[in-house]
Design goal:
Length: 306
């Protein structure tokens, strides 16, 4: 079928595009340089040119703790407007299926672990990424409202923290795994990391995430949000030690406790995805890290800050 992937030139989007093309779909890739989806005119032109039967909405303004702290207004506005425009244009253009990528950042700061979809509204998100998380939660409400009023088959997926080849290794705007890989690969005697290393996270390899998107698009038609994850939790300190081992870093890791930790714990209950559309992550963290480090080393010379 004719499939539109917003953010198709990005980290997750590029992997999804490759998978959809292997499956025989006619894929239209929407890149930021061609379409600013915060502008109605650009979004409308995109849907007119793409003529999609199915849409995966992956485009977003994203980043680590530092980027979220520096750009709270932009992250709220851009993610809200992009999602609203995609929803409305999916309605206008009679799109058969809309798959929306949410974020684990939408969960309350102190949600019981593992996070269950029914707990999504039981508190405010962690402050450093709340504007981003709240914007994404608003898109969930929009999708459910459009389903109720217009009958749009819009589904909302909540992936765990993602990583893998082609991730963003920007020196000031990267998520934790690419940031650790870059710092520990380039570090000599000492590497300084934010916080105290105690927070825990769950990480989902990009190919597993793509598999979840594809399965949900084909098999799930419900209004309720669905987690995509592994159910395995690791502390940032343990993660840093594992990345140090895999990259061969033998210097000292120093924890800057004057900087924020972020959300204390993150781990998802992925049972709903397993029950509703048969999703189970297959890539272990060590295997995924080894692949990502190998890709980074092969590509580091050609990477430019984004």
């Amino acid at each position: 079928m004719r499939v539109l992937v917003t953010g198709g030139g990005g980290f997750v989007g590029s992997h999804l595009v490759e998978r959809l093309e292997r499956d025989g779909h006619d894929v239209f890739v929407a890149r930021r340089r061609d379409y600013d989806l915060t502008r109605w005119e650009d979004a409308e032109r995109l849907f007119r040119e793409a003529g999609p039967e199915r849409v995966f909405h992956l485009a977003g303004e994203v980043g680590g703790i530092g980027a979220n702290r520096a750009n709270p207004g932009r992250f709220w506005y851009a993610n809200l407007m992009m999602g609203a425009h995609v929803l409305e244009l999916a309605r206008i253009n009679d799109v058969a299926k809309l798959v929306i990528a949410g974020t684990v950042c939408a969960y309350p700061k102190f949600a019981p672990v593992p996070f269950r979809e029914d707990d999504l509204w039981d508190g405010y998100p962690e402050e450093t990424n709340a504007p981003y998380g709240v914007a994404k939660k608003s898109i969930l409400i929009g999708a459910q409202s459009y389903r109720d009023q217009y009958g749009i088959d819009a589904i909302f997926l909540l992936p765990a923290n993602l990583y893998g080849p082609r991730d963003h290794f920007h020196p000031t705007n990267a998520h934790v795994i690419p940031d650790l890989i870059r710092k520990l690969s380039e570090g000599d005697e000492e590497v300084v990391l934010w916080g105290d290393g105690s927070p825990t996270r769950e990480f989902l390899y990009v190919d597993d995430c793509v598999e979840g998107f594809v399965l949900a698009a084909d098999r799930y038609d419900g209004a309720e949000p669905v987690n995509l994850g592994t159910g395995q939790e690791i502390s940032i300190r343990e993660l840093a030690e594992l990345v140090a081992e895999l990259t061969g870093f033998d210097g000292e890791i120093v924890w800057d406790t004057s900087m924020p930790n972020g959300q204390p714990r993150r781990s998802l209950d992925a049972s709903r995805a397993r029950e509703l559309f048969g999703f189970e992550a297959k890539t272990s963290l060590q295997e995924g890290l080894e692949r990502t480090i190998a890709w980074y080393r092969a590509s580091a010379a050609t990477l430019s800050p984004r």
